[in-house]
Amino acid sequence: MPDAPDWVRDALHAGMVIPAHPLALSADGAYDERRQRALTRYYAAAGAGGVAVGVHTTQFAIRAPEHDLLEPVLRTACQTLDEVERNDGPRLVRIAGVCGPTTQAVREAELATAFGYHAGLLSLAALSTVDEDALIEHCRAVAGVIPLFGFYLQTAISGRPLGESFWSRFAEIDNVVAIKIAPFDRYKTLDVVRGVAQAGRAGEIALYTGNDDHIVADLLTPFQTRLGGGAVTQQTVTQQIVGGLLGHWAVWTRKAVELFDHVQALRTGAEPITSDAFALDAQVTDCNAALFDAAHGFAGCVPGINHVLHGQGLLASARCLDPRERLSPGQAERIARVRRDYPHLTDDDFVAEHLDAWLS
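Structure tokens predicted for Dihydrodipicolinate synthase family protein (360 residues):
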């Protein structure tokens, strides 16, 4: 199986901010490569440690024949990151979304590998009816092409329930480098953590939060799993969610990086944990409720992200590939309210200062 470079594994285990990269479209719905590049430059300049491209926030519809945008979008991100590195910028971990039935997923993994992506974020939404054995066989087939970044996608946006047994078997695949835990469910989050521990891969697989509704608490919580049958042989394995791969972090990314640095300081004891940390968790969740449109079952999650980026000038338009996919009633007002209530979580000044350079 292909393996990720050592520096990629080390970076993932150290923890980082990984925005789920949106798609840039013009007002008439055409692919806007100039602003797609600007977004990638923004994430690099903001201090993100990686980007995830071709994922839910990029819109799964980029794969539809009438759009056929997966290859251009993957290429644009890699070319832009190459340019950033040539100009003495940071080296980012490159993660490509991989989805669909096995034949499609393998083909997408091959495309990502050809462009130089380091791992594939593997969505299993297309395999909603197959049994666990077939799921694991599918994962192994994709792992034969690219290192895997597992993905527990919430059921509200086409995810399927995946229990502890699945995650234990998934974690046994040698080149699983990380898992994005995003069921938006505390019980299911524990299933992933316990599955990795049961597989004996604690400390080998980097755990990332995708629970945009519980970001700070996920990053601060030590997860302890008891292994072994008897009192004498039993041992406690402690795991930490070390970073986040989040659609929420596709906006206000500079402040997300500052928040992440603050949380790391809390986690290591460099700063004391006080009630302010839990207040911050609630504030971030409140922002996410507006951005992701929790009031309408997350129907407006991608439009909400695009709305903010458009308002900052990073996107020429907030539209999605499906013109029917728009902000829900009242969502713009809720986003305006959290921007007003939590200015310390927004980065409008940072974007305004650098926007012209990113668009050049």
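The longest strand covers residues 235-246.
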